[in-house]
Amino acid sequence: MSVVTQASPAAADQAAPAREWRPPSYWPFVIPALVVVLAVIIFPWVFTIWMSLQEWKVGSPTVFVGLANYLRLPTDPRFVEAVGHTLSYTALSVLLPLVFGTLAAVVFHQKFAARGFLRGIFIMPMMATPVAIALVWTMMFHPQLGVLNYLLSLVGLPPQLWVFNPTTVIPSLVLVETWQWTPLVMLIVLGGLAAIPTEPYESAQIDGANFWQVFRFITLPLIMPFLFIAGMIRMIDAVKSFDIIFAITQGGPGSASETINVYLYSVAFVYYDLGYGSAIAVVFFLLIVALAALLLYLRKRLLWTSQLGSEA
Amino acid sequence: MNPRYILGRIGLWLSVFVIVSPAILFFLWMASLSLKFEIDNASYPPVFFPEHIAWKNYADVFASNRFLTYFTNSLVVTGCATALAMLVGVPAGYGIARMAAHKSAIVILIARITPGLSYLIPLFLLFQWLGLLGTLVPQIIIHLVVTVPIVIWIMIGYFETTPLELEEAALIDGATRWQVFRHVALPIARPGLAVAFILAVIFSWNNFVFGIVLAGRETRTLPVAVYNMISFDQLSWGPLAAAALIVTAPVLLLTVMAQRQIVAGLTAGAVKGG
Predict the structure, then answer these.
(1) Start and end of every ABC transmembrane type-1 domain (chain B) (predicted)?
(2) CATH number belonging to domain B57-269
């Protein structure tokens, strides 16, 4: 790819059949985007890494401090706590949408009237402006006037403090996240269901399998790859979740719902400690990559053991 | 029409109802909040259909002169960021698809994984240094972080599926690469263009995190303006809910009208901004 031959394109077009001369001449199409990507994606990355090695506060001179910002992370209780919040928030925000999204996909895979329209309604939560949604959820969470406590009272449950109590704030935010992102899992799994051949179902019907058996032994194994993709995407988005948490609780009460991303915002743009903020950004990115690698590893392990199981 | 079939149908519709209701009920409640006077919004048990409808809430939102500024800001930022992304992203998607340069997708993957805030720190400094912070330019540029990867990603997928035969025929007839792209490839990929455009618009319009850092008082986009209403100006729910609904209404309309394209784009790329 590195060698760009300057053969006269017109002559080459006449002579060679399609494939050989293709690579070089498509470069002009890519260059404008390459410039943009270099400017707004690659440059910020390189600059962030460099900044993370500096003592860099807005308004004071910068000093090179090596890895000091990184060494500060494990001794910063707020950061350690934020990592814990992020992990529990992420675990719940991956699992719940996976379960509900799969169920919803099984239903949307059936044929019924106005399916397209209803699917459009169903995906509205994930397309709607997060801040606008967060605002309405905040009102619904209100302990005295909120509609959620009223709904609880209808089924005889005691009122909750929702996002105003340190122990229930993360589950409450996960409720919003699940409501918002279950549709994405549904869409991915629905794509998987559409790709399943009909033969296994026909033979299962002949064998007299019931609905649950069909789901457990045919559908579920066949949509596993799609569930994995959905889980991966969900993980990446849940770790980075910002709008909903920030708009509803700003990380509170106290710091009970402060995730890494919210803490990063405070460090960089409230305390203007840009060097330390950059170090958090780098570690945060590495954490996401590590989680993604862990999921990939788990999938390999699972595939391997299930293959072993079927061979034995 | 045996009883078993009918029972199955009833079961299906019941499950459809259960699945769709959280979305429907939420947005209906949002509409209800936005159309009630304070007295109804503060009543317990909650009122769903008020006796008097408070159209005034909407009038209030539009009447505040800032709201129109913020609306224009959102239009300019989303419009420019989407247009620029289409301008550079569509040819790039074409080039990458034709070169089969699949490794370049790694950059897009990194962009997809990176938290939006980590772009903000270096770009914030850069914009400050360039003296651009009082204008909309920083927000337009940083929204490219969201829109460009979406457009490239979706267009790669579309151009990979469009037939090569026509393009090769045009080349043999003496067309330049640019002419082939402009008159052969682009018209065929029109559905893909629509998908990329719609998703770029939605994710740019919805973006919040870039705005809270980069926007000043005059350069707020709508999501930032609504957030500031929560924290400072407004304590009454009616106008707040009205503002929230106005901000997200264009997106919701687009979602229901173009659900086919959106579903196609999301399942193909599973992209999301920020």
Answers:
(1) 71-258
(2) 1.10.3720.10
Chain A CB contacts of B240 below 8 Å: 135, 139
Q: Which residues of A touch B226 (CB under 8 A)?
A: 129, 131-132, 135
Domain residues for the domain of A49 are 27-64
pLDDT in tens, chain B (274 residues): 688 888 888 989 999 999 999 999 999 999 999 998 888 887 778 888 888 888 888 988 888 768 889 999 999 999 999 999 999 999 999 998 888 877 777 788 788 888 888 889 899 889 988 988 889 999 999 999 989 988 998 898 888 888 888 888 888 888 888 888 999 899 988 888 999 999 999 999 999 999 998 988 889 999 999 888 876 555 688 888 999 999 999 999 998 888 888 888 777 655 444 4
DSSP codes, A112-174: -TTHHHHHHHHTHHHHS-HHHHHHHHHHHH-TTT-HHHHHHHHTTPPP--GGGSTTTHHHHHH
Angle between helices B105-113 and A274-311 in degrees, nearest 10: 110
Cis amide prior to A253 (ω within 30 degrees): yes
**Inter-residue contact A180 to A130 (CB < 8 Å):** yes
B266 at the A interface (CB within 8 A)? yes
Mark whether A122 and A249 lie in a shared domain.
yes
pTM for this predicted structure: 0.87
Q: Nearest CA to B272 among A293, A240, A78? A: A240
CA distance B267 to B274: 18
CA B6 vs CA A190, A254, B10, B124: distances in Å: 25, 54, 6, 61
Query: A63 in helix, strand or coil?
Result: strand
Is B168 part of the contact surface with chain A (CB cutoff 8 Å)? yes
Block residue for tokens 């579309």: B158
Do residues A187 and A270 share a domain? Answer: yes
Q: ipTM score here?
A: 0.89
CATH at residue A298: 1.10.3720.10
CA angle, B263 as apex, B259 and B264 as ends, to 5°? Answer: 120
* Cβ <8 Å between B91 and A242: no
Where are the strands (E) in B4-69, listed by range? none
Q: Are B115 and A136 an interchain contact pair (Cβ–Cβ within 8 Å)?
A: no
Instruction: Tell whether B131 lies on the interface with A, counting CB pairs under 8 A.
Output: no
Per-residue CA distances from B92 to A19, A179, B159, B185, B203 (Å):
19, 35, 10, 13, 20
Q: Closest approach of chain A CAs to the CA of B182, in angstroms?
A: 11
**Does B94 sit within 8 Å of A26, measured CB to CB?**
yes
Chain B partners of A288 at a C-beta cutoff of 8 Å? 113, 115
